[in-house]
Amino acid sequence: MFTGIVTAVGRISKAEPQGDGMRLRIDAKALGMDDVGLGDSIAIQGVCHTVVAMDANGFDVDTSRATLLVTTGLEAGRDVNLEKSLRLSDRLGGHLMQGHVDGVGTVTAFEDVGGSWRLEVEAPAALGRYIAKKGSIAIDGVSLTVNSVEGSRFEVNIIPHTRAVTTFRNLARGSRVNVEVDMVARYLERLSLPGSGERA
């Protein structure tokens, strides 16, 4: 589990074929590796990964073909948002997230509105039903509040601090971003389905 509060920006220094997927090397000295162990979960650009090798300067993860097909931003040379998995003693500054990306959206506007930035994203049409005004959403692993929504297009506000300490500083119109909807919306849909309470 994660909170969407990015703690460091790293860089994918290598992306090498591994079976039908890739092994990624993440340069992550700014993240702090002292409390990271093999098997730990770290969100990379909003995507949950398992640490399979590490040293003081970064770590390696394996990512599957299935993951690569439904995400973006996991290529060599890319800056990536990083967040260690949530501990029970941590503050929940954002919202509960699983690191399970629901789809890739496209930035349709990213503009300075005086003191903050307006970010508008067109999500895949199937995700529109899960996005609600004043609800939570994650973009590239960053927890945000939806200001407005029409269909599957939604708008959030980015304060200067968030833009400065995340990969949002690299965004522009046309950028592709990972989108994870609020998990509560997923469970509510499941509970509302006919027969969802029946035993198998």
UniProtKB/TrEMBL annotation:
UniProt keyword annotation of Repeat present: yes
GO molecular function terms attached to this record: riboflavin synthase activity
Lumazine-binding repeat extents: 1-95, 96-192
Highest taxon of the lineage: Bacteria
Domain Lumazine-binding intervals: 1-95, 96-192
Keywords on record: Repeat, Riboflavin biosynthesis, Transferase
Cited NCBIfam families: PRK09289.1 (NF006767), ribE (TIGR00187)
E.C. code: 2.5.1.9
UniProt-listed CDD domains: Riboflavin_synthase_like
Gene3D superfamilies: 2.40.30.20
Function (record text): Catalyzes the dismutation of two molecules of 6,7-dimethyl-8-ribityllumazine, resulting in the formation of riboflavin and 5-amino-6-(D-ribitylamino)uracil.
Organism: Usitatibacter rugosus
One of the protein's GO biological processes: riboflavin biosynthetic process
Pathway note: Cofactor biosynthesis; riboflavin biosynthesis; riboflavin from 2-hydroxy-3-oxobutyl phosphate and 5-amino-6-(D-ribitylamino)uracil: step 2/2
Top-level enzyme category: transferase
Protein name stated in the entry: Riboflavin synthase
Gene: ribE
Catalytic activity: 2 6,7-dimethyl-8-(1-D-ribityl)lumazine + H(+) = 5-amino-6-(D-ribitylamino)uracil + riboflavin
